[in-house]
Specification:
The protein is an alpha/beta fold and about 350 residues long. About 40% of the residues lie in helices and about 15% in strands.
């Protein structure tokens, strides 16, 4: 059985009977975990193992684990700082920032791989334009070249720990003031004005970027539909102009930003028709059976191959990882970032 085009979430800390049936469907490709799915390290390891054991090849197990305010698993996981602090360090000491970015990516990935999680949807490569509050300190820097440079080092660190990264939110969420989770998000800039926003993707793709998450943001000067449902953005720009060969993943289609086109099952189909490989459907369990029924018979062998490449590779047990010299070194590099906001406020 191959990986299907739908990624769903779970209600709690174990797999419920109806959820298990959904996970057995060939139309499901993975699970995204949230804070509600995490009670303890032992419980999380058991949950991930349970999901992986449902079928072969194993379903992808993913999470949003960026750092700062977007980190689903907390203690005993290392409390990662927001990515913006890497950008601040880059302004002061570029060499130290690049070393820290690689350690950041490795530390994030190594801890998740220790409990079996395949992938984290990070890094956020939206530019820090100061317009989108939903992005805020999740952005690395205002300068596109700095974002690309830091993101490449972050990705290299994660890869070394056995994890594929996902750059988001293509083509950008930086110029949309509205939060696509709760409102229709619109960026009225022309294509020529988006050149800097696309630069991090160009550079990451040139370095073998494994996955991209598509934003539910509309760019009316370019295309009338949200990017996540747009063949122009996905096929002509991402696949064609930028030469991306990895997996294309939507943001959650239950978000208001995707609702402009109709019911959830229609959004899923439009996203797949536009060229997405994997569609996230979160916080809407009542919609899962409806979507699965609507996708009956859907098959995309190329997408299945791209998704299979996102499985995590290798891992070190939690206790051994934390006792290792490499973990200690990475922690020593990243930990000083955690104190920076407080120190800057005091100054």
């Amino acid at each position: 059985m191959s990986l299907g085009p739908l990624m769903i979430d779970l209600r709690g800390t174990a797999v419920a009977p109806d959820e298990r049936e959904w996970l057995r469907s060939p139309l499901v490709g993975g699970v995204i975990l949230f804070t509600r799915n995490f009670a303890s390290l032992e419980q999380l390891e058991a949950l991930v193992e349970e999901i992986h054991a449902v079928r072969q090849p194993p379903l992808l197990v993913t999470v949003d684990h960026e750092g700062g305010r977007v980190q689903r698993f907390r203690e005993p996981f290392f409390r990662l700082p927001p990515l913006r602090l890497l950008g601040h360090l880059y302004d002061e000491n570029p060499s130290a920032a690049l070393q820290t970015a690689a350690a950041f990516g490795w530390l994030m990935a190594a801890e998740l791989r220790a409990v079996g999680v395949d992938m984290s949807f990070t890094p956020c490569v939206d530019l820090d334009l100061g317009l989108a509050e939903v992005i805020g300190d999740r952005a690395l820097h205002v300068d596109a070249k700095a974002v690309a440079t830091l993101a490449r080092r972050f990705a290299a660190g994660a890869k070394r720990a056995g994890m594929a990264v996902t750059a988001k939110h293509f083509p950008t969420h930086a110029g949309a003031r509205s939060d696509s989770h709760t409102e229709f998000a619109v960026d009225r800039r022309s294509y020529d004005e988006l050149v800097d926003d696309l630069l991090p993707y160009r550079e990451l793709i040139a370095n073998g970027l494994p996955a991209v998450m598509i934003a539910h943001v509309s760019f009316p000067a370019v295309d009338s539909t949200p990017a996540s449902l747009s063949r122009w953005w996905i096929q002509e720009q991402l696949r064609g102009e930028l030469g991306f060969a990895g997996a294309v993943i939507t943001d959650d289609v239950s978000m208001v930003g995707a609702a402009v086109v109709g019911p959830v099952e229609e959004r899923v189909r439009l996203a797949l028709d536009a060229g997405c490989d994997l569609v996230l459907l979160c916080n809407a369990p009542e919609q899962v059976p409806i979507v699965l029924e609507s996708l009956h018979g859907y098959v995309n062998p190329s997408a299945q191959l791209r998704l299979t490449r996102l499985h995590g590779r290798g891992s070190v047990p939690w206790e051994s990882l934390h006792a290792s010299a490499e973990w200690q070194k990475a922690r020593a590099l990243v930990a000083p970032l955690c104190a920076r906001p407080k120190l800057e406020l005091e100054g």
